[in-house]
Design goal:
alpha/beta, TIM Barrel, 207 residues, single chain
Length: 207
């Protein structure tokens, strides 16, 4: 299986960030991030596809994993490594019919959804929000205890998301998360420096 650990950079909406999703991803990858997810919910699908084509080449050049959020068809058309789904997106079984052997993950909010995702063939699950977040309306923070319960409920990797900072990312790794997905805490400000702080914190948590 391709790299599914450590830090996943989830691109910020371009309307809320001074640089494009492609530029965000380039900076993160150049800082050492090995997994990028393109999330462009407010963009035209053609724009998502064009951005995905550029990021696919960069990710391959640098040995990084490249996913697209929400759109299995664009993930297929752009030859991405995988797709990440929400609970209201195309079901996992139908997504598999489109993407074949590419990786597929899905957002979950508790042990029941996590188990269902694993049984449905997900390669990993996202869980959160672990901490309070304003990146999107995701409901109340579920906390580290709930994260641990989800980790114990499944055998596939769990990716924590929501309100994660360099100061608390070590806690989610120690709670059993294989990785953490981070958006605004990296995209706001100096992306390279922010990403490096997260990577250093993960390394410290694992030693």
């Amino acid at each position: 299986m391709l790299y599914l650990g450590g830090l996943c950079f989830l691109t910020a909406e371009e309307s809320a960030c001074p640089v494009s999703a492609a530029e965000q991803s380039r900076a993160a990858i150049m800082a050492g991030v090995k997994w990028v997810q393109l999330r462009m919910k407010n963009a035209a699908r053609r724009r998502v596809w064009e951005t995905a084509l550029a990021l696919r080449e960069l990710a391959r050049e640098k040995g990084a994993l490249f996913f697209i959020n929400d759109y299995p068809d664009i993930a297929l058309a752009a030859d991405a490594d995988g797709v990440h789904l929400g609970q209201e997106d195309l079901p996992l079984r139908e997504t598999r019919m489109l993407i074949g052997k590419r990786l597929a993950g899905i957002s979950t909010h508790g042990p029941a959804e996590a188990k269902a995702a694993e049984e449905g063939g997900a390669d990993y699950i996202g869980f959160g929000p672990v901490f309070e977040t304003r990146t999107k309306e995701a409901g109340p923070a579920r906390g580290l205890q709930s994260l641990g319960e989800v980790v114990r409920a499944v055998s596939i990797p769990v990716v924590a998301i929501g309100g994660i900072t360099p100061e608390n990312i070590g806690l989610v790794i120690k709670a059993g998360a294989r990785a953490a997905a981070v958006s605004s805490a990296i995209a706001a400000g100096d992306i390279r420096e922010n990403a490096k702080r997260f990577l250093e914190a993960i390394e410290a948590a694992r030693t």
